[in-house]
Amino acid sequence: MRLRLVVAVFTAGMIAAPAFAQGLFDDAEARRRVEVLRQQIEANQRALDERFSRIESAATDRGAILELSGQINAMRDELARMRGQVEVLAHQAELAEKRQKDLYLDIDTRLRRLEQAQEAGASATPAQPAAQTEPTEAENKAYTAALDQFKLGNYSLAVSAMQGFLVTYPSSPLAPNAQYWIGMAHSGQRDYKSAIAAQRKLLSDWPDSPKAPDALLSIASAQETMGDRTAARKTLEELIAKYPASSSAASAKQRLAVLQKR
Fold first, then answer.
1. What is d(CA 42, CA 46) in angstroms, rounded to the nearest whole number?
2. pTM score of the predicted model
């Protein structure tokens, strides 16, 4: 306001000074010129008001734009941080799944070697042909192809491939293994009821198979995942009682101890 008053007075002085200094007008002319001067001052005042208004408006808009820009940048930073967290979690999940698959495959490889060693040391019974004690090349290829689907995480295809293997080679020494991986593939799909049913079929059809203890351990895991800890404890106790010398029995004892503490 002080700036506006100074400008107004200065403008009035600049317009009136020459006329007063020269004494070239009478009272009427003076009044007319004063009125003109007053109108000019008001016009200048309005122009100044409009200019100040535009300046204030521009300043306000600029502040709003700067504030909005700051919010957008903050949101971008937050989105970038969240994307980073998602990528880290996805990588961790991928590593966990790979470790689980590697564990399954390692167990299966060790058991197959153990089975082959046991079969090599045992003599074939007269009622069972030698061809039944060791898988043929065709059986090995079919089984490996089905197991590869499990390795790739194609659990649905793994189930179909292993079921096809059992239809084609029902008497193969690898039949219990195929049935076991059917159950594990169902677990991979989080279909735990089907997984339990598949492992119980293994126990029913091949109760003496080296895979039988693993089947019981898989059943207990599925039951625990489903929240049925009572059933899981009973299954672990059954495993320890039926197959006390198996490696799965040792794992069952550890799990049972954990379950009993809960």
1. 6
2. 0.54
pLDDT digits (tens, 9 = 90+) for 32-83: 666 776 677 777 677 766 765 666 666 566 666 777 777 777 776 666 666 6
In Å, how far are 103, 137, 154 from 100, measured between CA atoms? 5, 28, 14
pLDDT in tens, 133-174: 789 999 999 999 999 999 999 999 999 999 999 999 999 999
Overall residue count recorded for the chain in this entry? 262
And the tokens for 207?
A: 């109760």
Biggest alpha carbon–alpha carbon distance for the chain: 149
CATH architecture for segment(s) 95-120+129-261: Alpha Horseshoe (1.25)
Residue 158 and residue 185 in contact, taking contact as beta carbons nearer than 8 Å: yes
The amino acid that residue 172 corresponds to is S
Q: How remote is the C-alpha of 83 from its chain's centroid?
A: 11
Locate the domains of the chain by residue range: 2-74, 95-120+129-261
Cβ atoms of 152 and 183 within 8 Å: the answer is: no
Where do the H-state alpha helices sit in the chain? Answer: 2-22, 27-121, 137-151, 155-168, 175-188, 192-205, 211-225, 229-242, 247-261
Structural contact between residues 188 and 155, judged by C-beta atoms closer than 8 angstroms: yes
